Protein backbone atom coordinates (compact mmCIF):
# COMPACT_ATOMS: atom_id res chain seq x y z
CA UNK A 1 0.00 0.00 0.00
CA UNK A 2 1.44 3.37 -1.03
CA UNK A 3 1.77 6.30 1.31
CA UNK A 4 -1.13 8.11 -0.42
CA UNK A 5 -3.45 5.13 -0.08
CA UNK A 6 -2.52 4.64 3.55
CA UNK A 7 -3.07 8.37 4.21
CA UNK A 8 -6.46 8.14 2.51
CA UNK A 9 -7.45 5.25 4.76
CA UNK A 10 -6.37 7.12 7.91
CA UNK A 11 -8.15 10.35 6.94
CA UNK A 12 -11.29 8.47 5.87
CA UNK A 13 -11.41 6.70 9.20
CA UNK A 14 -11.01 10.04 10.99
CA UNK A 15 -13.77 11.61 8.92
CA UNK A 16 -16.11 8.67 9.63
CA UNK A 17 -15.42 8.99 13.35
CA UNK A 18 -16.38 12.68 13.13
CA UNK A 19 -19.58 11.87 11.27
CA UNK A 20 -20.56 9.09 13.68
CA UNK A 21 -19.55 10.91 16.86
CA UNK A 22 -22.22 12.15 19.26
CA UNK A 23 -20.00 15.00 20.38
CA UNK A 24 -20.34 18.52 18.99
CA UNK A 25 -18.87 18.79 15.53
CA UNK A 26 -16.23 21.33 16.57
CA UNK A 27 -14.87 19.02 19.26
CA UNK A 28 -14.72 16.05 16.88
CA UNK A 29 -12.82 18.07 14.28
CA UNK A 30 -10.25 19.21 16.85
CA UNK A 31 -9.67 15.65 18.07
CA UNK A 32 -9.68 13.74 14.78
CA UNK A 33 -8.73 16.08 11.90
CA UNK A 34 -6.79 19.09 13.21
CA UNK A 35 -3.70 16.94 14.05
CA UNK A 36 -3.28 16.27 10.31
CA UNK A 37 -2.50 19.98 9.81
CA UNK A 38 0.47 19.94 12.24
CA UNK A 39 3.31 19.30 9.80
CA UNK A 40 5.51 21.10 7.30
CA UNK A 41 4.02 22.82 4.26
CA UNK A 42 4.60 20.01 1.74
CA UNK A 43 2.98 17.39 3.96
CA UNK A 44 0.10 19.77 4.82
CA UNK A 45 -0.64 20.36 1.11
CA UNK A 46 -0.67 16.61 0.52
CA UNK A 47 -2.98 16.01 3.45
CA UNK A 48 -5.25 18.86 2.30
CA UNK A 49 -5.61 17.32 -1.15
CA UNK A 50 -6.17 13.90 0.41
CA UNK A 51 -8.88 15.25 2.73
CA UNK A 52 -10.67 16.89 -0.17
CA UNK A 53 -10.46 13.62 -2.10
CA UNK A 54 -12.04 11.80 0.85
CA UNK A 55 -14.83 14.35 1.12
CA UNK A 56 -15.68 13.96 -2.57
CA UNK A 57 -15.57 10.17 -2.25
CA UNK A 58 -18.05 10.25 0.64
CA UNK A 59 -20.20 12.70 -1.30
CA UNK A 60 -20.39 10.28 -4.23
CA UNK A 61 -21.40 7.50 -1.85
CA UNK A 62 -24.10 9.64 -0.20
CA UNK A 63 -25.55 10.55 -3.62
CA UNK A 64 -26.65 6.90 -4.03
CA UNK A 65 -28.82 7.01 -0.89
CA UNK A 66 -32.61 7.35 -1.10
CA UNK A 67 -33.91 10.87 -0.36
CA UNK A 68 -34.94 10.13 3.22
CA UNK A 69 -31.34 9.10 4.07
CA UNK A 70 -29.57 11.41 1.64
CA UNK A 71 -30.72 14.76 3.07
CA UNK A 72 -29.53 14.28 6.68
CA UNK A 73 -26.30 12.54 5.58
CA UNK A 74 -25.50 15.32 3.09
CA UNK A 75 -26.18 18.05 5.69
CA UNK A 76 -23.90 16.27 8.16
CA UNK A 77 -21.09 16.00 5.61
CA UNK A 78 -21.44 19.60 4.43
CA UNK A 79 -21.40 20.91 8.00
CA UNK A 80 -18.26 18.85 8.63
CA UNK A 81 -16.51 20.28 5.55
CA UNK A 82 -17.48 23.83 6.47
CA UNK A 83 -16.38 23.29 10.07
CA UNK A 84 -12.98 21.97 8.95
CA UNK A 85 -12.13 25.20 7.16
CA UNK A 86 -13.39 27.30 10.07
CA UNK A 87 -11.38 25.26 12.62
CA UNK A 88 -8.12 25.20 10.65
CA UNK A 89 -7.60 26.86 7.27
CA UNK A 90 -4.83 24.37 6.41
CA UNK A 91 -7.29 21.46 6.46
CA UNK A 92 -9.19 22.35 3.26
CA UNK A 93 -9.97 25.21 0.88
CA UNK A 94 -12.91 27.50 1.62
CA UNK A 95 -14.58 26.69 -1.72
CA UNK A 96 -14.67 22.89 -1.16
CA UNK A 97 -18.07 23.11 0.60
CA UNK A 98 -19.76 24.64 -2.43
CA UNK A 99 -17.93 22.22 -4.76
CA UNK A 100 -19.28 19.18 -2.90
CA UNK A 101 -22.79 20.69 -2.80
CA UNK A 102 -22.62 21.31 -6.55
CA UNK A 103 -21.57 17.69 -7.25
CA UNK A 104 -24.37 16.39 -5.05
CA UNK A 105 -27.01 18.50 -6.85
CA UNK A 106 -25.83 17.36 -10.27
CA UNK A 107 -26.86 13.79 -9.44
CA UNK A 108 -30.21 14.52 -7.76
CA UNK A 109 -33.69 15.46 -9.03
CA UNK A 110 -34.98 18.98 -8.43
CA UNK A 111 -37.20 17.92 -5.53
CA UNK A 112 -34.06 16.86 -3.61
CA UNK A 113 -32.11 19.90 -4.82
CA UNK A 114 -34.74 22.18 -3.28
CA UNK A 115 -34.02 20.67 0.14
CA UNK A 116 -30.25 20.71 -0.40
CA UNK A 117 -30.37 24.37 -1.45
CA UNK A 118 -31.74 25.24 1.97
CA UNK A 119 -28.24 24.48 3.31
CA UNK A 120 -27.06 27.62 1.49
CA UNK A 121 -29.88 29.70 2.95
CA UNK A 122 -29.31 28.43 6.51
CA UNK A 123 -25.51 28.86 6.48
CA UNK A 124 -25.37 31.97 4.33
CA UNK A 125 -23.23 34.04 6.71
CA UNK A 126 -20.68 31.25 7.18
CA UNK A 127 -20.43 30.42 3.48
CA UNK A 128 -20.12 33.98 2.20
CA UNK A 129 -17.16 35.04 4.34
CA UNK A 130 -14.54 36.74 2.13
CA UNK A 131 -16.65 36.11 -0.97
CA UNK A 132 -15.16 37.56 -4.18
CA UNK A 133 -17.74 37.45 -7.00
CA UNK A 134 -15.19 37.06 -9.80
CA UNK A 135 -13.14 34.21 -8.40
CA UNK A 136 -13.13 31.21 -6.07
CA UNK A 137 -16.37 30.27 -4.38
CA UNK A 138 -18.11 33.31 -5.88
CA UNK A 139 -17.91 31.72 -9.34
CA UNK A 140 -18.89 28.29 -7.99
CA UNK A 141 -21.99 29.68 -6.28
CA UNK A 142 -23.00 31.55 -9.43
CA UNK A 143 -22.48 28.46 -11.63
CA UNK A 144 -24.39 26.24 -9.21
CA UNK A 145 -27.36 28.64 -9.03
CA UNK A 146 -27.53 29.25 -12.78
CA UNK A 147 -27.53 25.52 -13.45
CA UNK A 148 -30.44 25.02 -11.06
CA UNK A 149 -32.39 27.86 -12.71
CA UNK A 150 -31.77 26.28 -16.09
CA UNK A 151 -33.03 22.90 -14.89
CA UNK A 152 -36.07 24.23 -13.01
CA UNK A 153 -39.38 24.44 -14.83
CA UNK A 154 -41.06 27.85 -14.96
CA UNK A 155 -44.44 26.28 -14.27
CA UNK A 156 -43.67 23.50 -11.77
CA UNK A 157 -40.69 24.95 -9.88
CA UNK A 158 -41.37 28.67 -10.04
CA UNK A 159 -41.11 29.09 -6.25
CA UNK A 160 -37.72 27.38 -6.22
CA UNK A 161 -36.49 29.67 -8.99
CA UNK A 162 -37.63 32.65 -6.93
CA UNK A 163 -35.68 31.41 -3.89
CA UNK A 164 -32.52 31.14 -5.97
CA UNK A 165 -32.89 34.60 -7.47
CA UNK A 166 -33.59 36.17 -4.07
CA UNK A 167 -30.51 34.47 -2.62
CA UNK A 168 -28.33 35.72 -5.48
CA UNK A 169 -29.69 39.27 -5.26
CA UNK A 170 -28.88 39.35 -1.53
CA UNK A 171 -25.41 37.89 -2.11
CA UNK A 172 -24.00 39.84 -5.03
CA UNK A 173 -23.76 43.60 -5.40
CA UNK A 174 -26.25 45.44 -7.60
CA UNK A 175 -23.50 46.48 -9.98
CA UNK A 176 -22.11 42.96 -10.37
CA UNK A 177 -21.44 42.21 -14.03
CA UNK A 178 -23.20 38.85 -13.89
CA UNK A 179 -26.43 40.52 -12.77
CA UNK A 180 -26.55 43.27 -15.40
CA UNK A 181 -27.86 42.63 -18.90
CA UNK A 182 -25.39 44.89 -20.71
CA UNK A 183 -26.59 44.12 -24.20
CA UNK A 184 -30.27 44.44 -23.33
CA UNK A 185 -30.86 40.88 -24.55
CA UNK A 186 -34.32 39.35 -24.22
CA UNK A 187 -35.51 35.79 -23.70
CA UNK A 188 -36.26 34.97 -27.33
CA UNK A 189 -36.81 31.32 -26.41
CA UNK A 190 -40.16 32.28 -24.90
CA UNK A 191 -42.22 31.53 -28.01
CA UNK A 192 -46.04 31.43 -27.99
CA UNK A 193 -47.30 28.87 -30.49
CA UNK A 194 -50.77 29.31 -31.99
CA UNK A 195 -52.61 28.03 -35.06
CA UNK A 196 -53.07 30.76 -37.66
CA UNK A 197 -54.87 28.69 -40.29
CA UNK A 198 -58.45 29.74 -39.47
CA UNK A 199 -60.51 32.09 -41.64
CA UNK A 200 -63.09 34.72 -40.75
CA UNK A 201 -63.33 37.87 -38.67
CA UNK A 202 -62.87 36.07 -35.34
CA UNK A 203 -59.84 34.20 -36.71
CA UNK A 204 -58.30 37.50 -37.87
CA UNK A 205 -58.61 38.94 -34.37
CA UNK A 206 -57.23 35.69 -32.96
CA UNK A 207 -54.12 36.01 -35.16
CA UNK A 208 -53.76 39.71 -34.32
CA UNK A 209 -54.02 39.01 -30.58
CA UNK A 210 -51.49 36.18 -30.37
CA UNK A 211 -49.20 37.78 -32.95
CA UNK A 212 -48.37 40.49 -30.41
CA UNK A 213 -46.56 37.98 -28.19
CA UNK A 214 -43.67 37.74 -30.69
CA UNK A 215 -42.94 41.45 -30.09
CA UNK A 216 -43.62 41.33 -26.36
CA UNK A 217 -41.00 38.59 -25.83
CA UNK A 218 -38.45 40.50 -27.93
CA UNK A 219 -39.16 44.28 -27.64
CA UNK A 220 -36.15 45.43 -29.75
CA UNK A 221 -37.93 43.80 -32.69
CA UNK A 222 -40.43 46.69 -32.55
CA UNK A 223 -37.88 49.08 -34.01
CA UNK A 224 -37.29 47.16 -37.22
CA UNK A 225 -39.01 48.29 -40.42
CA UNK A 226 -42.57 49.49 -39.70
CA UNK A 227 -43.21 47.10 -36.80
CA UNK A 228 -43.88 49.79 -34.19
CA UNK A 229 -46.74 51.33 -36.16
CA UNK A 230 -48.25 47.88 -36.84
CA UNK A 231 -48.00 46.79 -33.20
CA UNK A 232 -49.55 50.03 -31.86
CA UNK A 233 -52.48 49.65 -34.26
CA UNK A 234 -52.95 45.99 -33.26
CA UNK A 235 -52.88 46.92 -29.57
CA UNK A 236 -55.61 49.48 -30.29
CA UNK A 237 -57.71 46.73 -31.93
CA UNK A 238 -57.26 44.47 -28.88
CA UNK A 239 -58.21 47.26 -26.46
CA UNK A 240 -61.34 48.09 -28.47
CA UNK A 241 -62.41 44.44 -28.31
CA UNK A 242 -61.79 44.38 -24.57
CA UNK A 243 -63.85 47.56 -24.20
CA UNK A 244 -66.78 45.90 -26.01
CA UNK A 245 -66.55 42.90 -23.69
CA UNK A 246 -66.55 45.17 -20.61
CA UNK A 247 -69.62 47.03 -21.92
CA UNK A 248 -71.50 43.74 -22.44
CA UNK A 249 -70.55 42.59 -18.95
CA UNK A 250 -71.87 45.82 -17.43
CA UNK A 251 -75.13 45.50 -19.37
CA UNK A 252 -75.53 41.88 -18.29
CA UNK A 253 -74.88 42.78 -14.67
CA UNK A 254 -77.47 45.57 -14.83
CA UNK A 255 -80.06 43.20 -16.29
CA UNK A 256 -79.35 40.61 -13.60
CA UNK A 257 -79.73 43.24 -10.89
CA UNK A 258 -83.00 44.41 -12.45
CA UNK A 259 -84.27 40.82 -12.59
CA UNK A 260 -83.26 40.30 -8.98
CA UNK A 261 -85.38 43.29 -7.89
CA UNK A 262 -88.44 41.81 -9.61
CA UNK A 263 -88.09 38.58 -7.64
CA UNK A 264 -88.05 40.27 -4.25
CA UNK A 265 -91.60 39.02 -3.62
CA UNK A 266 -90.24 35.56 -2.94
CA UNK A 267 -87.99 36.77 -0.14
CA UNK A 268 -88.70 37.30 3.55
CA UNK A 269 -90.00 33.75 4.09
CA UNK A 270 -92.58 33.66 1.28
CA UNK A 271 -92.77 30.35 -0.59
CA UNK A 272 -91.01 30.14 -3.95
CA UNK A 273 -92.91 28.95 -7.00
CA UNK A 274 -92.53 25.28 -7.88
CA UNK A 275 -90.26 24.36 -10.78
CA UNK A 276 -89.50 21.23 -12.74
CA UNK A 277 -85.73 21.33 -12.23
CA UNK A 278 -85.99 20.66 -8.51
CA UNK A 279 -84.94 24.18 -7.43
CA UNK A 280 -87.69 24.25 -4.81
CA UNK A 281 -86.38 21.15 -3.04
CA UNK A 282 -84.37 21.35 0.13
CA UNK A 283 -80.67 21.05 -0.58
CA UNK A 284 -78.19 19.15 1.49
CA UNK A 285 -75.65 20.99 3.63
CA UNK A 286 -72.78 19.50 1.60
CA UNK A 287 -74.13 21.02 -1.61
CA UNK A 288 -74.47 24.44 0.03
CA UNK A 289 -70.92 24.25 1.42
CA UNK A 290 -69.51 23.32 -2.00
CA UNK A 291 -71.33 26.24 -3.62
CA UNK A 292 -69.95 28.68 -1.02
CA UNK A 293 -66.41 27.40 -1.60
CA UNK A 294 -66.82 27.88 -5.35
CA UNK A 295 -68.10 31.46 -4.90
CA UNK A 296 -65.21 32.20 -2.55
CA UNK A 297 -62.71 30.98 -5.14
CA UNK A 298 -63.94 33.64 -7.60
CA UNK A 299 -61.89 36.23 -5.71
CA UNK A 300 -58.75 34.12 -5.95
CA UNK A 301 -56.19 35.58 -8.34
CA UNK A 302 -55.55 33.04 -11.08
CA UNK A 303 -52.06 32.44 -12.37
CA UNK A 304 -51.25 31.37 -15.93
CA UNK A 305 -47.69 30.01 -16.22
CA UNK A 306 -48.13 29.80 -20.01
CA UNK A 307 -50.93 30.94 -22.29
CA UNK A 308 -53.39 28.42 -23.72
CA UNK A 309 -53.53 29.56 -27.34
CA UNK A 310 -56.06 27.11 -28.77
CA UNK A 311 -58.60 28.72 -31.09
CA UNK A 312 -61.41 26.72 -29.45
CA UNK A 313 -60.63 28.31 -26.04
CA UNK A 314 -59.99 31.82 -27.33
CA UNK A 315 -63.50 33.22 -26.85
CA UNK A 316 -63.67 31.89 -23.28
CA UNK A 317 -60.20 33.23 -22.48
CA UNK A 318 -60.88 36.82 -23.48
CA UNK A 319 -64.20 36.66 -21.60
CA UNK A 320 -62.30 35.92 -18.38
CA UNK A 321 -61.48 39.17 -16.50
CA UNK A 322 -58.37 37.63 -14.91
CA UNK A 323 -56.96 36.70 -18.32
CA UNK A 324 -57.67 40.18 -19.70
CA UNK A 325 -56.04 41.77 -16.70
CA UNK A 326 -52.83 39.77 -17.26
CA UNK A 327 -52.75 40.81 -20.92
CA UNK A 328 -53.42 44.47 -20.05
CA UNK A 329 -50.56 44.53 -17.55
CA UNK A 330 -48.30 42.93 -20.15
CA UNK A 331 -49.20 45.64 -22.67
CA UNK A 332 -48.68 48.32 -19.99
CA UNK A 333 -45.13 47.06 -19.41
CA UNK A 334 -44.41 47.34 -23.14
CA UNK A 335 -45.84 50.87 -23.17
CA UNK A 336 -43.46 51.89 -20.38
CA UNK A 337 -40.58 50.29 -22.29
CA UNK A 338 -41.44 52.48 -25.26
CA UNK A 339 -41.53 55.66 -23.15
CA UNK A 340 -37.80 55.15 -22.59
CA UNK A 341 -37.27 56.08 -26.26
CA UNK A 342 -38.96 59.47 -26.03
CA UNK A 343 -36.47 62.26 -26.85
CA UNK A 344 -36.72 63.91 -23.42
CA UNK A 345 -36.16 60.60 -21.61
CA UNK A 346 -33.16 59.77 -23.80
CA UNK A 347 -31.72 63.23 -23.15
CA UNK A 348 -32.10 62.70 -19.39
CA UNK A 349 -30.31 59.36 -19.55
CA UNK A 350 -27.51 60.66 -21.78
CA UNK A 351 -26.98 63.61 -19.44
CA UNK A 352 -26.51 61.33 -16.43
CA UNK A 353 -24.48 58.68 -18.28
CA UNK A 354 -20.76 58.68 -17.62
CA UNK A 355 -18.67 59.24 -20.79
CA UNK A 356 -17.21 56.07 -22.32
CA UNK A 357 -18.81 53.89 -19.64
CA UNK A 358 -18.42 50.33 -20.89
CA UNK A 359 -20.41 48.91 -17.97
CA UNK A 360 -23.62 50.79 -18.78
CA UNK A 361 -26.46 49.00 -20.53
CA UNK A 362 -26.77 49.93 -24.19
CA UNK A 363 -30.18 51.01 -25.47
CA UNK A 364 -31.26 50.49 -29.09
CA UNK A 365 -30.58 53.60 -31.15
CA UNK A 366 -34.16 54.61 -31.86
CA UNK A 367 -36.23 57.73 -31.16
CA UNK A 368 -40.03 57.74 -31.06
CA UNK A 369 -41.53 60.72 -32.85
CA UNK A 370 -44.35 62.96 -31.59
CA UNK A 371 -47.30 61.29 -33.45
CA UNK A 372 -46.33 57.91 -32.02
CA UNK A 373 -45.86 59.48 -28.57
CA UNK A 374 -49.47 60.72 -28.63
CA UNK A 375 -50.65 57.27 -29.73
CA UNK A 376 -48.72 55.58 -26.90
CA UNK A 377 -50.19 58.02 -24.36
CA UNK A 378 -53.73 57.35 -25.59
CA UNK A 379 -53.21 53.58 -25.36
CA UNK A 380 -51.77 54.02 -21.86
CA UNK A 381 -54.88 55.90 -20.71
CA UNK A 382 -57.17 53.25 -22.23
CA UNK A 383 -55.32 50.46 -20.44
CA UNK A 384 -55.56 52.28 -17.10
CA UNK A 385 -59.33 52.77 -17.52
CA UNK A 386 -59.90 49.14 -18.49
CA UNK A 387 -57.82 47.86 -15.57
CA UNK A 388 -59.93 49.95 -13.20
CA UNK A 389 -63.12 48.51 -14.72
CA UNK A 390 -61.92 44.90 -15.08
CA UNK A 391 -61.29 44.13 -11.40
CA UNK A 392 -63.49 44.60 -8.36
CA UNK A 393 -60.92 46.79 -6.62
CA UNK A 394 -59.54 48.25 -9.82
CA UNK A 395 -58.23 51.59 -8.56
CA UNK A 396 -56.10 50.02 -5.84
CA UNK A 397 -54.81 47.44 -8.32
CA UNK A 398 -53.86 50.17 -10.80
CA UNK A 399 -52.18 52.18 -8.05
CA UNK A 400 -50.07 49.16 -7.13
CA UNK A 401 -49.12 48.41 -10.74
CA UNK A 402 -48.12 52.02 -11.41
CA UNK A 403 -46.01 52.04 -8.24
CA UNK A 404 -44.18 48.91 -9.36
CA UNK A 405 -43.65 50.33 -12.86
CA UNK A 406 -42.32 53.55 -11.37
CA UNK A 407 -39.80 51.59 -9.31
CA UNK A 408 -38.82 49.65 -12.43
CA UNK A 409 -38.36 52.92 -14.31
CA UNK A 410 -35.95 54.22 -11.67
CA UNK A 411 -34.12 50.88 -11.69
CA UNK A 412 -33.74 51.03 -15.48
CA UNK A 413 -32.50 54.61 -15.23
CA UNK A 414 -29.83 53.47 -12.77
CA UNK A 415 -28.73 50.70 -15.14
CA UNK A 416 -28.76 52.86 -18.25
CA UNK A 417 -27.23 55.97 -16.71
CA UNK A 418 -24.31 55.15 -14.42
CA UNK A 419 -24.60 51.49 -13.39
CA UNK A 420 -22.54 52.01 -10.26
CA UNK A 421 -22.82 50.40 -6.87
CA UNK A 422 -24.76 52.27 -4.22
CA UNK A 423 -21.77 51.86 -1.94
CA UNK A 424 -19.15 53.01 -4.47
CA UNK A 425 -16.66 55.71 -3.60
CA UNK A 426 -18.13 58.22 -6.06
CA UNK A 427 -21.70 57.86 -4.76
CA UNK A 428 -20.65 57.95 -1.10
CA UNK A 429 -18.50 61.05 -1.73
CA UNK A 430 -21.38 62.87 -3.41
CA UNK A 431 -23.76 61.92 -0.60
CA UNK A 432 -21.30 63.10 2.05
CA UNK A 433 -20.79 66.43 0.27
CA UNK A 434 -24.55 66.92 -0.09
CA UNK A 435 -25.06 66.07 3.60
CA UNK A 436 -22.44 68.64 4.65
CA UNK A 437 -24.12 71.34 2.55
CA UNK A 438 -27.56 70.53 3.98
CA UNK A 439 -26.15 70.60 7.52
CA UNK A 440 -24.52 74.00 6.94
CA UNK A 441 -27.79 75.42 5.59
CA UNK A 442 -29.68 74.03 8.60
CA UNK A 443 -27.21 75.72 10.98
CA UNK A 444 -27.70 79.05 9.19
CA UNK A 445 -31.48 78.78 9.47
CA UNK A 446 -31.25 77.85 13.13
CA UNK A 447 -28.92 80.78 13.90
CA UNK A 448 -31.24 83.19 12.08
CA UNK A 449 -34.27 81.94 14.03
CA UNK A 450 -32.38 82.15 17.33
CA UNK A 451 -31.60 85.87 17.00
CA UNK A 452 -33.96 88.28 18.82
CA UNK A 453 -36.58 89.76 16.55
CA UNK A 454 -36.14 93.36 15.52
CA UNK A 455 -39.00 95.82 16.19
CA UNK A 456 -41.50 95.76 13.37
CA UNK A 457 -41.78 99.03 11.48
CA UNK A 458 -45.54 98.91 10.87
CA UNK A 459 -46.51 102.45 11.67
CA UNK A 460 -50.04 103.22 10.47
CA UNK A 461 -50.51 106.89 11.32
CA UNK A 462 -53.51 107.53 13.52
CA UNK A 463 -53.94 103.83 14.30
CA UNK A 464 -50.41 103.54 15.61
CA UNK A 465 -50.98 106.64 17.68
CA UNK A 466 -54.16 105.11 19.06
CA UNK A 467 -52.33 102.03 20.36
CA UNK A 468 -49.79 104.22 22.20
CA UNK A 469 -52.38 106.33 23.99
CA UNK A 470 -52.66 106.06 27.77
CA UNK A 471 -56.07 107.66 28.21
CA UNK A 472 -59.45 105.91 28.08
CA UNK A 473 -60.13 104.42 24.63
CA UNK A 474 -63.89 104.93 24.84
CA UNK A 475 -63.51 108.63 25.49
CA UNK A 476 -61.09 108.94 22.59
CA UNK A 477 -63.43 107.19 20.17
CA UNK A 478 -66.51 109.19 21.26
CA UNK A 479 -64.73 112.54 20.93
CA UNK A 480 -66.51 114.43 18.11
CA UNK A 481 -63.82 117.07 17.96
CA UNK A 482 -61.32 114.61 16.51
CA UNK A 483 -60.12 115.56 13.06
CA UNK A 484 -61.44 113.23 10.36
CA UNK A 485 -59.11 113.26 7.38
CA UNK A 486 -61.31 111.25 5.01
CA UNK A 487 -61.23 112.84 1.52
CA UNK A 488 -64.30 114.51 0.02
CA UNK A 489 -66.27 112.83 -2.70
CA UNK A 490 -65.66 115.53 -5.31
CA UNK A 491 -61.89 115.33 -4.73
CA UNK A 492 -61.90 111.59 -5.16
CA UNK A 493 -64.00 111.79 -8.30
CA UNK A 494 -61.69 114.32 -9.91
CA UNK A 495 -58.73 112.09 -9.16
CA UNK A 496 -60.24 108.96 -10.72
CA UNK A 497 -61.19 110.98 -13.82
CA UNK A 498 -57.53 111.85 -14.18
CA UNK A 499 -56.71 108.11 -13.98
CA UNK A 500 -58.84 107.42 -17.06
CA UNK A 501 -62.31 106.93 -15.59
CA UNK A 502 -64.63 105.95 -17.19
CA UNK A 503 -62.69 103.73 -19.64
CA UNK A 504 -63.61 103.88 -23.31
CA UNK A 505 -63.46 100.08 -23.63
CA UNK A 506 -66.06 99.57 -20.90
CA UNK A 507 -66.02 97.80 -17.54
CA UNK A 508 -66.99 94.24 -18.48
CA UNK A 509 -64.06 91.81 -18.27
CA UNK A 510 -63.68 89.55 -21.30
CA UNK A 511 -61.44 86.56 -21.97
CA UNK A 512 -60.24 88.22 -25.19
CA UNK A 513 -58.87 91.26 -23.31
CA UNK A 514 -55.16 91.89 -23.40
CA UNK A 515 -53.16 92.20 -20.21
CA UNK A 516 -53.15 96.03 -20.40
CA UNK A 517 -56.92 96.17 -20.98
CA UNK A 518 -57.57 93.82 -18.10
CA UNK A 519 -55.39 95.89 -15.74
CA UNK A 520 -57.14 99.12 -16.85
CA UNK A 521 -60.63 97.69 -16.21
CA UNK A 522 -59.64 96.34 -12.81
CA UNK A 523 -58.13 99.69 -11.87
CA UNK A 524 -61.35 101.53 -12.88
CA UNK A 525 -63.46 99.14 -10.80
CA UNK A 526 -61.24 99.83 -7.77
CA UNK A 527 -61.40 103.60 -8.29
CA UNK A 528 -65.19 103.54 -8.63
CA UNK A 529 -65.51 101.48 -5.46
CA UNK A 530 -63.31 104.00 -3.63
CA UNK A 531 -65.48 106.90 -4.86
CA UNK A 532 -68.69 105.19 -3.71
CA UNK A 533 -67.09 104.40 -0.38
CA UNK A 534 -66.29 108.09 0.11
CA UNK A 535 -69.78 109.21 -0.94
CA UNK A 536 -71.61 107.14 1.66
CA UNK A 537 -70.89 109.67 4.45
CA UNK A 538 -72.89 112.50 2.84
CA UNK A 539 -75.02 110.93 0.07
CA UNK A 540 -76.39 107.76 1.67
CA UNK A 541 -79.93 108.78 0.69
CA UNK A 542 -79.19 108.25 -3.00
CA UNK A 543 -77.97 104.67 -2.59
CA UNK A 544 -80.76 102.22 -3.46
CA UNK A 545 -79.98 100.19 -0.35
CA UNK A 546 -81.82 99.74 2.98
CA UNK A 547 -80.62 102.18 5.62
CA UNK A 548 -81.08 102.46 9.33
CA UNK A 549 -84.16 104.32 10.53
CA UNK A 550 -82.16 106.65 12.68
CA UNK A 551 -79.91 107.74 9.80
CA UNK A 552 -80.11 111.57 9.66
CA UNK A 553 -79.22 113.39 6.46
CA UNK A 554 -78.14 116.94 6.37
CA UNK A 555 -80.12 119.35 4.24
CA UNK A 556 -77.07 120.98 2.78
CA UNK A 557 -75.89 117.60 1.48
CA UNK A 558 -79.06 117.20 -0.57
CA UNK A 559 -78.57 120.57 -2.20
CA UNK A 560 -75.30 119.54 -3.85
CA UNK A 561 -76.87 118.80 -7.21
CA UNK A 562 -73.69 118.30 -9.18
CA UNK A 563 -72.38 115.74 -6.77
CA UNK A 564 -75.72 113.95 -6.78
CA UNK A 565 -75.78 113.63 -10.58
CA UNK A 566 -72.27 112.28 -10.55
CA UNK A 567 -73.15 109.83 -7.79
CA UNK A 568 -76.21 108.56 -9.69
CA UNK A 569 -74.01 107.92 -12.70
CA UNK A 570 -71.63 105.89 -10.56
CA UNK A 571 -74.48 103.92 -9.00
CA UNK A 572 -76.04 103.10 -12.36
CA UNK A 573 -72.71 101.70 -13.56
CA UNK A 574 -72.25 99.63 -10.40
CA UNK A 575 -74.59 96.59 -10.23
CA UNK A 576 -73.81 96.07 -6.56
CA UNK A 577 -75.75 99.24 -5.71
CA UNK A 578 -78.94 98.30 -7.57
CA UNK A 579 -82.18 97.24 -5.95
CA UNK A 580 -81.61 93.67 -7.06
CA UNK A 581 -79.00 93.27 -4.37
CA UNK A 582 -81.29 94.15 -1.48
CA UNK A 583 -81.11 91.30 1.01
CA UNK A 584 -84.33 89.59 1.93
CA UNK A 585 -84.91 88.91 5.58
Verbal overview:
It is a single chain. By secondary structure, this protein is mostly helical. It folds into four domains: 171 residues; 192 residues, no CATH class; 28 residues; 103 residues. Helices cover 61% and strands 0% of the residues. It contains 25 helices and no strands. The longest helix is centred in the middle third of the chain and has 36 residues. It is elongated, with a radius of gyration of 43 Å.
Please work out how many helical segments DSSP would assign. 25
Cα radius of gyration in angstroms: 43 Å
Shape: elongated
Distance between the termini: 123 Å
What does the largest sheet look like? none
Structural class by SSE content:
mainly alpha
The helix fraction, in percent, is: 55-70%
Determine the mean pLDDT: 76
Quote the beta fraction: under 5%
Please give the domain count.
4
Catalogue the unreliable spans. 265-302, 546-559, 575-585
Give a summary of the structure in a few sentences:
The chain has 585 residues and is mainly α. The chain contains 25 helices and no strands. 61% of the residues lie in helices and 0% in strands.
Amino acid sequence: MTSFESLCVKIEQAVNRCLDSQEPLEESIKKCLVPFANANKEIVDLRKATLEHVFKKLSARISTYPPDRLIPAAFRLLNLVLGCHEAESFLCEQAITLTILEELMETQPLEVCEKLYSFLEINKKRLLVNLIPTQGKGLILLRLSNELIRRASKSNHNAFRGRILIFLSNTYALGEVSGVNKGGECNVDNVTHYSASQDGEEAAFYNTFWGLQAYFSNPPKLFKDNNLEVVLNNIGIVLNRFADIISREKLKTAEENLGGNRNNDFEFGLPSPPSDDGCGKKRKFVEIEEEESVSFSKDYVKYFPKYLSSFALFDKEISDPNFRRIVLVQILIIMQYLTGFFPEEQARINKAKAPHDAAAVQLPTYTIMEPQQHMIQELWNKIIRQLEETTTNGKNFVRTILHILNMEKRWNYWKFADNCSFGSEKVMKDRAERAREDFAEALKRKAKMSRPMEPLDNRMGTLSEFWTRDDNDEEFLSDTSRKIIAPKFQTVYERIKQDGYPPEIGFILDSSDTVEEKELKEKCWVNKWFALRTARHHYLLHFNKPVKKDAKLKKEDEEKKDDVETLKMLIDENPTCSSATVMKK
